[in-house]
Amino acid sequence: MVFAYFDRLSAAQKRIYRKSDGIPAVPLPRRQDLHPLIPGLSAALEREDRAAVELLCREIADGIAARLEVPLLRVRVLAVRPSASWGELHGLYEPAEGRARAVITLWMRTAKQKRVVAFKAFLRTLLHELCHHLDYELFHLPASFHTEGFYQRESSLFHQLVPDKAETGPTA
Ligand SMILES: [Zn+2]
Q1: CA 167 to centroid of ligand 1, rounded, Å
Q2: Which one of 5, 56, 145, 157 is at 20 to 30 Å from 13 when CA atoms are compared?
Q3: How many whole angstroms separate alpha carbon 139 and alpha carbon 162?
Q4: Are the beta carbons of 77 and 54 closer than 8 angstroms?
């Protein structure tokens, strides 16, 4: 499956798109060691502790970057999402490009209702922005497109960090 904007891409961009679309998963070594961070993040988000949320997001991002041997990045968590006529910004990835590190910015509250973002949606946004980082730094793609493969990689990371019940049993 390709998304509608595919037709508007140049031949070179289409090659990048197909490469991105062909990578369905990102296997994470020693992912069990990251599992203890997840309930902590959920709790910090629930009590609206911005500093703790930011710290835990950094630990998760550092943990993933270290396991995949890609450059570390900066993660900052801000209070209320910016919004404009086009909608709301959930997260933002800015490649390093001269800076020491790439930067991920996340927002804890929705712009419209100022409600705290639901935990799973929030974690997915962090992983989504991390997937842009991996496109450049792990897969060495010259551009990072939202392909079906891209969303599969986002889900792949999510399910490795938030395993199904079967995976958390005594044999895990
Ligand atoms: Zn994106």
Answers
A1: 29
A2: 157
A3: 24
A4: yes
- Location of structure tokens 């997260």: 91
The amino acid present at 12, given as its one-letter code, is A
CA–CA separation, 54 and 50 (whole Å): 6
Q: How far is the CA of 151 from the centre of ligand 1 (A)?
A: 9
Alpha helices in the chain (DSSP H): 11-21, 37-46, 50-68, 119-137, 148-161
CA of 170 to the centre of ligand 1 (A): 36
Max Cα-Cα span within the chain: 51
Compute the distance between CA of residue 63 and CA of residue 67 in angstroms, rounded to an integer. Answer: 6
pLDDT in tens, 8-38: 999 999 999 999 999 999 999 999 999 999 9
Distance between CA atoms of 134 and 68, rounded to whole angstroms? 9
